[in-house]
Q: What sequence folds into this?
């Protein structure tokens, strides 16, 4: 009961720290990380050990699915060179540099253990960076690159981690068997993710009760991860593919009355999981501090500091070097000669921001917690206490140092939003309203239906004016305001359905990306809920 009371109190503290971080313009994981570090120093706090096999499933699967569901395949394809370079090249460089640094500081540590530590601290967490960047409205492409990197660098780092742990616990692994294994795991994970998305979407389409639908979504996420792990595939890659494939069909099969509350529940769950991860690491660190003496603690601190510097500098070196190399290849084309297309597409200022956005987060914590702790007949992972201490120190150091200084860096570099998403939102609003207006003309109706048509005409004129760069409306209202209306429910549903189909078509042909799609989809969802309430009259809503 005492542990439960502590967790509840710390969740409330996490909510307060999050509110404070938004006022200060810092990522909330930085504040929660500081709270977790303080927890390890508070006398009387309980010692709590998490089952290592549960750590990755519990903390990574839902968080990763939430991020992948919102990813835009169109934008990822346009930036695949940059994303692939960060997800593979930057991760590989970080793993190598960290392994070498740790081996120099701890010569007795096996190479496989050093590589495992490198893989644990290699993948950055884009959520911390984008939490700050979204408030500053940077170019949309920077957000796409950082969010896309976070989806795939976890997969590459975790595959390296699994191989290193397997070598440490089971013995040597021949290089000849690694390449086929990686190929099978990657291909199998992609196929499994696509297949499971079809199955789960068919099941979800039949559920119209909000509570049941949300439970099925969460259970489905864990089931996808667990099944992939049971088949010795990549849980991360499977979940990413599953989420991105599901997102393409969810708008068509999930009704608005389910989608709106389920999104709110997912946002809450991701927040709670982030806070709980730092709390659990605080508990783990307290146990570690109780087992080591002061000289050992000082040695751990030196190693953690060296690893933290290695992770930061490795990323900066990769991003800066790759961006400079691409600009060198591209320069002949800019000067009128023949040159290759820009391979990375980052200016000096953009490269500085991307290189500095290397904050580590929940994936690093969960992966460190997942190391075998011993007991139950199985061996403990060598140097587990040092690795866990170092991983948390890297997370804390990068979140505090880079997270706090990211806003001043952005202000100095003056990188601003290019307005690409807003232009797509205005275009989509015009196109969907045109489709809705066209649908109203095809359905017979009474005077109320005519009033509805007139309202669509007004909304369309406002949206067209906004798209052309004029004022959204003489009253100053946003063209998205006032979509909700009263009128003939039948003709209104026909109009809403036509708008939604047009929106899906715009995303399918690449006219708009998922960021603009989600903005307009939210407007249509609220419109659909208004229509459902209109059809019920005074009947209270269910579910």
A:
């Amino acid at each position: 009961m005492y542990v439960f009371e502590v967790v509840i109190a710390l969740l409330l503290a996490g909510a307060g720290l999050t509110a404070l971080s938004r006022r200060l313009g810092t990522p909330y994981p930085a504040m929660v990380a500081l709270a977790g570090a303080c927890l390890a120093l508070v006398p009387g706090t309980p010692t709590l050990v998490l089952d290592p096999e549960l750590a990755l499933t519990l903390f990574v699967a839902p968080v990763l699915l939430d991020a992948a569901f919102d990813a835009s395949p169109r934008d990822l394809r346009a930036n695949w060179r940059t994303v692939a370079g960060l997800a593979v090249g930057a991760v590989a460089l970080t793993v190598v540099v960290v392994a070498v640094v740790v081996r120099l500081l701890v010569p007795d540590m096996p190479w496989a253990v050093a590589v495992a530590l490198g893989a644990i601290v290699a993948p950055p967490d884009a959520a911390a960076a984008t939490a700050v960047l979204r408030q500053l409205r940077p170019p949309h492409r920077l957000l796409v690159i950082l969010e896309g990197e976070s989806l795939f660098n976890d997969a590459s780092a975790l595959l390296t981690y699994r191989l290193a742990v397997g070598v440490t616990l089971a013995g040597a692994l021949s290089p000849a068997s690694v390449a086929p294994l990686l190929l099978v795991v990657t291909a199998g994970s992609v196929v499994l993710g696509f297949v499971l998305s079809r199955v789960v979407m068919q099941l979800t389409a039949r559920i119209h009760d909000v509570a049941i639908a949300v439970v099925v979504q969460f259970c489905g996420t864990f089931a996808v991860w667990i099944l992939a792990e049971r088949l010795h595939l990549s849980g991360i890659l499977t979940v990413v593919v599953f989420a991105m494939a599901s997102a393409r069909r969810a708008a068509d099969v999930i009704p608005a009355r389910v989608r709106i509350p389920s999104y709110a529940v997912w946002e809450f769950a991701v927040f709670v999981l982030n806070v709980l991860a730092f709390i659990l690491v605080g508990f783990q660190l307290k146990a570690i501090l109780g087992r080591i003496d002061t000289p050992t603690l000082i040695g751990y601190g030196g190693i953690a500091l060296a690893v933290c510097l290695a992770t930061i500098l490795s990323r900066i070196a990769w991003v800066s070097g790759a961006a400079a190399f691409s600009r060198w290849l591209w320069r002949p084309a800019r000067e009128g000669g023949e040159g290759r297309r820009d391979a990375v597409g980052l200016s000096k200022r953009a490269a500085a921001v991307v290189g500095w956005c290397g904050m580590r987060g929940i994936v690093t914590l969960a992966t460190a917690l997942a190391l075998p702790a011993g007991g139950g007949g199985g061996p403990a992972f060598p140097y587990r206490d040092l690795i866990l201490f170092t991983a948390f120190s890297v997370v804390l150091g990068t979140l505090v140092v880079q997270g706090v200084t990211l806003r001043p860096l952005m202000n100095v570099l003056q990188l601003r939003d290019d307005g690409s998403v807003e232009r797509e939102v205005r275009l989509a609003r015009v196109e969907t309203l045109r489709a809705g207006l066209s649908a109203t003309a095809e359905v017979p109706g009474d005077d109320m239906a005519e009033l509805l048509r007139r309202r669509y005409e007004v909304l369309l004129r406002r949206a067209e004016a906004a798209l052309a760069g004029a004022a959204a409306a003489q009253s100053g209202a946003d063209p998205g305001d006032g979509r909700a209306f009263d009128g003939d429910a039948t003709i209104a549903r026909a109009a809403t359905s036509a708008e939604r189909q047009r929106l899906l078509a715009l995303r399918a042909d690449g006219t708009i990306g998922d960021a603009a799609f989600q903005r307009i989809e939210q407007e249509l969802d609220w419109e659909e809920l208004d229509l459902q309430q209109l059809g019920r009259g005074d009947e209270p809503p269910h579910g």
Remarks:
- The beta strands are 373-375, 378-380.
